[in-house]
Design goal:
It is built from seven helices and no strands. It is elongated. The model has no long low-confidence stretch (mean pLDDT 89).
């Protein structure tokens, strides 16, 4: 992957964290905060290396925890786990299909939220969990699922813009001799 594309991925993660924190109107309307980071981690898991995935998970986790009530660093583990699982199974995933991107985004968002809650409980924090948490988890998963195809389209457009496109090969062999005239 191009270093410029990786830089744009990190800048997009930075902007996604602050966009998430700025959407106070959506929080009051939907009853939950939308998390855009798992969709970015899914994209990174399917297109980059484990080092970029780890760096992005650390970057996103620290930024997200800075602007939330979570203890610093608790979000890193779920994002890293999701990214590495997607990376190791990327040969089995239909990367170019929008429904597969939606399912991956929704599953990653739900898994990230559940793993974060489990880590908070394991570290003796008391997250607010109730029947409304099921609604919040469903809305977050739906939003993460809708965000994932948009991430793929955005970064595919960035990739097409800044990288050379492969030249289609001709169906004719170059060592072939064409005889003209009457045989």
């Amino acid at each position: 992957m191009n270093p410029l594309t990786i830089t744009i991925l990190f800048v997009t993660a930075y902007l996604a964290v602050f966009l998430t924190a700025k959407m106070a109107g959506m929080i009051s309307f939907l009853g939950t905060q939308i998390d855009l980071l798992p969709a970015l981690i899914v994209y990174a898991g399917l297109t980059t290396s484990p080092i970029v995935i780890a760096g992005l998970a650390i970057w996103c986790g620290l930024l997200s925890d800075t602007l939330s009530a979570n203890p610093l660093g608790i979000t890193i583990n779920p994002l890293l786990l999701i990214g590495l699982v997607v990376y190791h199974r990327k040969e089995l995933i239909l990367r170019d299909q929008a429904y597969a991107q939606f399912i991956l985004g929704a599953a990653a968002t739900a898994a990230s939220a559940l793993i974060t809650v489990l880590l908070l409980i394991a570290t003796d924090h008391r997250p607010l969990i109730g029947w409304g948490s099921i609604w919040q988890l469903m809305i977050q998963a739906l939003a993460g699922g809708c965000c994932a195809p948009l991430c793929f389209q955005f970064f595919d457009r960035i990739h097409r813009t800044f990288n050379y496109q492969p030249v289609p090969e001709s169906s004719f062999r170059s060592d072939r001799e064409i005889k003209r005239g009457r045989a």
